[in-house]
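#structure-requests
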Amino acid sequence: MTLTRTAAVALALALPLLAGCGLRIDAPDPSPPPPSPAEALRQREALRSAAFADGAATWGVAGSPSAERLAVNASLHLDALGGVWEPWPDGDGPAEPDGLPLYPAPAPEFGPFETSDDLVDALAQSTPEVCEAALDATEPEAVSLYSAICFSRTLDWDGVSRDFGIIPPEVPAVPETVGSQDPGLILTLDAAAWATDFQAAAARAAEDEGWQGLEATARGYRDLALAITSANGWTGTEQDPRLPSYDPNALPDQTAIAAAIAEAAVLALPNSTNRESVLDLALHYGLTASRQGVQFDALTGLEESGPTDESSPTG
């Protein structure tokens, strides 16, 4: 291509100006890249946590203890997620040379919640998505974080729904097989079997007809612990985490056992080969225990403390 004299002169005049402002026409675009998929996910969940922290509190005041708990838990989730990213000038986001934000300010997806149905609908839409994030995450830290939020948010969704007489989420069935390499989960299931056998023996001695059901429940715990151990090739080896005996008083009833299994399953998620089965296990027993009055931490699996409730055997 041949430049006309006018075009050549214009280009010659423009080059020093471009050089003077520090921009090279052959240099790559200096603008920062858009948020990564991981950051977009984090921002989405931070915005949702902020919406629940702000909006659910109103319904807590209106008489829903579960909505009040949701607001508190969501605030803790927001902190764990690192807060909502804000562009310049309110936050640390990149800006154009003229000072305008390069990326738009984040817009809340939910809220305000004008009715209890609005709140429950938002929970029904968003909770399965954060659970899916826990299943899809590739970094162990992300698995732990999104699993903790999924577990907490599911229990809050259940509680809020029940407070307002709305159909609660379905309780997942106990999976037939559980893929995990977490010794703590196996140990908890085996201890649950031991404690339930002890409860069955006590019920039988007291001529309580429930002893047969307890024996069947103990068998289920023991079989699941054995199946996970065998799948990992640990049976009878030094890696087998099961103990010869346990203190049956450490898990005095089935509510305490459900809470212990739920917490162990959440903790096991980053070290599991089939996360969906382990998450179903956590949610099954977590919802079971929650409906009996057990309250779990907002970040189960990320905090040292376990389920607490003054009225429950675990308190």
